[in-house]
């Protein structure tokens, strides 16, 4: 018997990563938002996962599926440790509307941050898409996104 799946949820700002994690957590799944806590270190201005911490997390036994959310430059180091890499995406107009309306994260409120997000959508999102095993376009209600993530976790898990 092997552990339940470890799923990486990645994507640009405003696509619904935090909303999905919140819903998965309410359903009893283990979740880690790497934007919070000590998961990130900044090297040369670039946020990176603290690799020993992520390695330890992914090495632990998993009695239920584990959903990890984040988008950092060194996440590819861990792709082979995840059972699925799920890209959440949304049209830029929707993502920017969500960013403007959200109250749980200040990132993306300034003009310079919005320009950075637009650049990342153009340059980074295509790279994430190439590496992803699944993509969910988050124009549907959050409950549908969460449901799709649960299905993915069950599809790739073999406890």
From TrEMBL:
Annotated GO MF terms: shikimate kinase activity
Top-tier EC class: transferase
EC number: 2.7.1.71
Pfam family membership, one: AAA_18
Top-rank taxon, per record: Bacteria
Record-linked InterPro entries: P-loop_NTPase (IPR027417)
Membrane-spanning intervals of the chain: none
Keywords, in A-Z order: Kinase, Transferase
Protein name: Shikimate kinase
Source species of the chain: Mycolicibacterium obuense
């Amino acid at each position: 018997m092997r552990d339940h799946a470890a799923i990486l949820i990645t994507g640009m700002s405003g696509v619904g990563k935090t909303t999905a994690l919140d819903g998965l957590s309410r359903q009893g799944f283990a979740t880690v938002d790497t934007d919070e806590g000590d998961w990130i270190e900044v090297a040369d201005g670039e946020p990176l996962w603290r690799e020993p911490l992520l390695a330890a997390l992914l090495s632990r036994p998993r009695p239920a599926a584990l959903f990890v959310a984040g988008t950092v430059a060194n996440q590819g180091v861990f792709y082979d440790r995840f059972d699925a890499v799920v890209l959440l995406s949304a049209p830029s107009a929707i993502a920017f509307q969500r960013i403007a309306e959200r109250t749980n994260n200040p990132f993306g409120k300034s003009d310079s941050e919005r320009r950075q997000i637009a650049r990342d959508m153009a340059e980074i999102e295509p790279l994430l898409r190439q590496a992803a095993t699944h993509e969910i376009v988050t124009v549907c209600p959050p409950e549908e996104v969460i449901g799709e993530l649960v299905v993915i976790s069950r599809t790739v898990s073999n406890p």
